[in-house]
Write a structure and sequence with these properties.
The chain has 5 helices and 6 strands. With 177 residues, it is an alpha+beta fold. It has a 4-stranded mixed sheet, sandwiched between helices. Strands 1-2 form a two-stranded antiparallel sheet. β3, α2 and β4 form a beta-alpha-beta unit. 31% of the residues are buried. One of its GO terms (biological process) is cellular response to oxidative stress. Pfam families: GSHPx.
Amino acid sequence: MSRLAACLFALPLLAWADCPPLLKHEFKTLQGQPLNLCSMAGKPILVVNTASKCGYTRQFETLEAMYKQYKAQGLMVVGFPSNDFKQELASNKEIGDFCKLTYFIEFPMAEASSVRGEGANPFFKALAQASGQAPKWNFQKYLIAPDGKTVYPFSTPTEPDAPELLAKLKPMLKPTK
């Protein structure tokens, strides 16, 4: 193997090695594209478990507005659809179409998975352990600090743009130019 090829091969391994343990998870998006949380290391990440048929589904609108407003300052928003509370559509395609056509969602949405209990995906198990709170309902929010270790949980009724959430988020954002 050439020296260049060896270096290029090692780059993803180095990135993985530098990745905080909480973010060492890979998923597929609703469209089947790779979603590597390590690629978001060093940025504030707002993680939300979602459901298309929930009374709190309207929070998608605020989540997308925040993503657009703060993306240039580093904010990542990632949705994790789940049918744990029996309020999600049947397929990833249906969920993706709903999010795109109803709320014009552009932030990454992982494939549907469980977010609580023994069947929870490993990332949500890690979030529950790091924050001390597992989702009690849809639209539980977790704000992960750029250090990839500090996690602030926010319950379902807390709006994504609530003062208490923004008070934690804004100091994490890069200054605007």
